[in-house]
């Protein structure tokens, strides 16, 4: 991946009008692209998983293990709504956040959703060596990832905007593509 500082910041004329919420599968680049995008647009970067881990003083995997997925998803909705209320910025969500209708409605009401769409091969290349993905702690993590992708794609397809990932893109390239999509949708003024 390329360095995040490769590109100049967007001029002051390009102002974000509402929160941009990055959605998609684990490994699609929500945190990396989101951090760089926020920097380029000179707005805050917020990460719902990081907020939850900080509040719980545990990793996401530990929260899942201790309290279960239902508890986690309920807290995720609370955190998401709080972060959306903080105004314009870039928000990275956990891979499952956009599956809940309540979360999609909150995102659509306060901001704009952007699906960072990546295929199974790219996602696997990015997550296969990570031990921080509780949903992949199975006997067949690749099969589990592919199953999750199949199940979640119809939900992600409900995002307002879509940006296709490509293995050849550096982070700066993805940021350029997201900015172009946001500008075309009138989210940047």
Fold and architecture overview:
The model is unreliable at 1-13 (pLDDT under 50). Strands 2-3-1-4-5 form a five-stranded parallel sheet, sandwiched between helices. With 189 residues, it is of the alpha/beta class. The protein contains seven helices and five strands.
Keywords:
single chain; 11% strand; 7 helices; alpha/beta; disordered N terminus; 5-stranded parallel β-sheet; 50% helix; 189 residues
Class by alpha and beta content: alpha/beta
Work out the radius of gyration.
16 Å
Tell me the strand order in the biggest sheet: 2-3-1-4-5
Q: Helices and strands, in N-to-C order?
A: EHEHHEHEHHEH
Instruction: Count the beta strands.
Output: 5
Specify the biggest β-sheet.
5 strands, parallel
**Low-confidence regions:** 1-13
Q: What's the mean pLDDT score?
A: 89
Question: What gap, in angstroms, lies between the N and C termini?
Answer: 29 Å
The coarse silhouette is globular
Beta content comes to: 5-15%
Determine the number of helices (DSSP H or I, runs of at least 4 residues): 7
Helix content: 40-55%
Quaternary structure: single chain
List the helices and strands and how they pair.
Elements: E1 20-23, H1 30-41, E2 45-47, H2 48-56, H3 60-84, E3 90-92, H4 101-110, E4 112-117, H5 120-127, H6 141-156, E5 161-164, H7 171-184
Parallel strand pairs: 1-3, 1-4, 2-3, 4-5
What's the quick description here?
With 189 residues, the chain is of the alpha/beta class.
